[in-house]
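Q: I'm building a small set of examples for a reading group on sequence design. Run inverse folding on the following structure and report the sequence directly after it, with nothing in between.
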């Protein structure tokens, strides 16, 4: 009797394991056409969504997954494949802020602050993808993360009717444990999508990228900008070359609440957007 129970239990575990592996491979197959491994292959889109992770492991050593995502975001931005970077991550604790950490590192490497938008409520992949559509009013965007993560993120996007592609950045060499965990994460995602119809923890008002400011019918033909934002714009212009070079002051300002507001104010100059510089070796060096 006990032997039969053990055999039955073993058969059930085997069946469940094969089912999990089958579903895992199905997700990989279904999303493969939307994944790109090189910047040159990427289609050009307005927004690149960088999925957050911690900068350091618990032991204090640099997290290679984070470094590769930052490098991938820089590559996509520098190549002109994306114009804005939406940084989506966890901000559950005051001492742990993934979007702000990513923003600081990207700015250090030359990304313009006005081209960065922060999503502090990207607590999980489903939140990040669905909020990009429902909060940031973007339905066609580039996801930036590792390939195994691309597949789950794209599967969520496809199920939600979102047109997304993914730039698959490199992974560290030893990812076996992470890949095993990913199988569980995919099963959880399937449950969220097909059993529980889960929504993001937080939604909120729409904040389009770039921001669109509503104008009165008989008002001025330029978007409204608060005094604080105007000071910020003027400070940016003051730091740019004034003699013989052109500066384009048309930009998207980041409001104090983290939102961005478009400004079409132009000076007589019109210089191209500066490109971000590659990370320095002591900052986000690759293995």
């Amino acid at each position: 009797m006990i032997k039969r129970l053990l055999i039955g239990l073993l058969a059930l575990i085997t069946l469940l394991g094969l089912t999990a592996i089958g579903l895992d491979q199905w997700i990989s197959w279904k999303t493969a056409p939307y994944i790109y491994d090189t910047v040159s292959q990427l289609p050009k889109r307005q927004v690149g969504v960088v999925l957050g992770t911690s900068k350091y492991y618990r032991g204090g050593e640099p997290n290679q997954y984070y470094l590769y995502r930052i490098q991938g975001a820089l590559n996509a931005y520098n190549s002109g494949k994306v114009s804005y970077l939406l940084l989506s991550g966890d901000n559950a604790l005051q001492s742990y802020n993934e979007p702000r950490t990513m923003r600081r590192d990207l700015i250090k490497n030359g990304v313009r602050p006005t081209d960065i938008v922060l999503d502090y409520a990207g607590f999980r992949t489903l939140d990040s993808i669905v909020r990009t559509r429902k909060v940031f009013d973007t339905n066609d965007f580039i996801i930036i993360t590792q390939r195994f993560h691309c597949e789950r993120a794209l599967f969520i996007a496809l199920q939600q009717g979102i047109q997304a592609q993914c730039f698959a950045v490199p992974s560290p060499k030893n990812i076996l444990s992470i890949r095993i965990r990913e199988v569980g994460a995919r099963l959880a995602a399937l449950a969220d999508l097909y059993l529980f119809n889960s929504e993001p923890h937080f939604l909120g008002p729409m904040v389009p990228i770039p921001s669109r400011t509503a104008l009165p019918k008989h008002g001025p033909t330029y978007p409204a900008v608060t005094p604080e934002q105007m000071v910020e714009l003027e400070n940016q212009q003051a730091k740019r070359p004034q003699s013989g070079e052109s500066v384009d002051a048309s930009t998207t300002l980041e409001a104090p609440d983290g939102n961005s507001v478009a400004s079409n104010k132009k000076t007589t100059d019109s210089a191209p957007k500066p490109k971000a510089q590659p990370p320095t070796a002591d900052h986000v060096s690759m293995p």
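The chain has a mean pLDDT of 81.
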